[in-house]
Amino acid sequence: MPGAAALWCLVFAGLFLAGYTLPAQSAIFNQTPIIQAQYFSLEEGLSHRHVTSIHQDSAGFLWFGTKYGLNRFDGYEFKWFSEEKNGLQSNEIDQILADATGRLWLFHTGNIWQGEVITIDLFDPVTHLAQSFKEIFGETARFDQSDIICFTRNKQGHLAFLTKSHLIVFTDRFVYYPISEPDIRLARKIYWADDGRFWVVVVKRLERTKLLILDSEGTVEHEILEEKNAEPVIRDLDEHGGGQYSTSIRAGASGQTQRKYYKIDPSGNKSEDLAAERFFGAYDIKQGFLSAILEKIQSYYWVSTEEREFKLLPENGGRPILLSEQYPSLKFPTSILADHEGAIWVATEFGVYRFMLKKPRFKVFLHDRKVPLTDETFSIRGMAVVDDGADSYLWAMVEQLGLLWRVDLRTGEEREIMGRDGARWALGKTKQNEILCAGTRDMLKIKGKTGEVVHSYHFEKPADALAIWMNVEDKYGKIWSDNYEAGKLIFFNEGKQTNLENWTGDPGTIYTYQFAEDKTDTAWVATSKGLFV
Known about the structure:
The chain is mostly beta strands. The protein is elongated and about 105 Å long. 5% of the residues lie in helices and 44% in strands. The strands form eleven sheets. Strands 1-2-29-28-27 form a five-stranded antiparallel sheet, with no helix packed on it. Strands 3-4-5-6 form a four-stranded antiparallel sheet. A hairpin with a 4-residue loop joins strand 31 and strand 32 (403-408).
């Protein structure tokens, strides 16, 4: 977008934490993002607050259909095109589709949910010339724009229209395919899959709803029957010919909605989508046929619900983000688009938002909200990571509380594995991915995945277990520790304790910080009184 980078500034930023905790694939890459938001309405130059549709052209310009004309945004300001100034047939634009040449088709349907067309204007984004459907196609089109029941577009910029008797595909000309299915006149929505087939939702008031799958020439390949009054919502169509969708059924006098999730394979076989049911069910998402938005963008499902909520659901699980709580206009969304710069635009009945999702620079682990985070009460004394490819854990010691914590780095789950009376001092790791932890009474070797105790090293003197700053395993399997108060080094060989008294030649308190070995079997020990070999 020309010059757009100079415009974007942070208007709102925040972290939204609410709802549920679900399993996630990666705690590092699935943390709650920092959300930058920018709002545009009349004050910023929109011709009308009610924005119905969004399109971005190949030059980067954003186009907004509104209830009072067409708006173009160049990153700095809005330009307005209208019936009065530019000869549009109607100032009410309910949908924008672009054909393969980049020309904008502006549909006025009187209702953004259904596709019964009143007028179509074709608008050249370069010349800003608007012409009506009849002006351009005249007698060459074997149908009238009012015959269109619903319409769609594929990724190549080809358009498709459903009438009561034909599927009509427009590339650079119209191609007509007759449809023998009588219920096509009751079509509510049409989707164009990447494999070239069309999915059509047919809603019959007093009979069972249908989901029709047509081939590229309009022949019905599969007919999937739904329950009476069902409202199917297509969620995803894959390139192999399969798809996923949900249905909402209002039952009984209470009007409660029953929600089911299904998938259809390329052969037209329908089965329950249990994974989707668990995912959306955990968030208690209620979405009917007329819900405006269900899109997966940047690892999030952007969802508008029947309860007038607008949520972001992490596709790998985690806390949902309730955007409509911070931005109330999102209770009335109409359209969504991800632009070329990675921003997400959400049109509403009260203006349009631009969102950027930024990954936080830091992720905080090992926090206990019941304990003040001060040096006196909650310091991390030791840390080690265990990773075998399949699982990855961070282990840490909370000194003053005597707690041993484990963080699952793939889910972000934090768990207290072990807690004892008194402080817990040092933490280390063996070559077998076992954790060494020392303090209060003894030193333990535990499994790096489960925390199960493998071995307990008992000190000869209770005081030795109370003054440990280091524990480490050398290349020969000896476990080294220290006693800073007595100024001695301790190592265990096959469970037997050996003491190196006054090993620095300087009796008294000495803190041992780090232990390292080189290729000559020499041990280097960093202490509060210098580096010793």
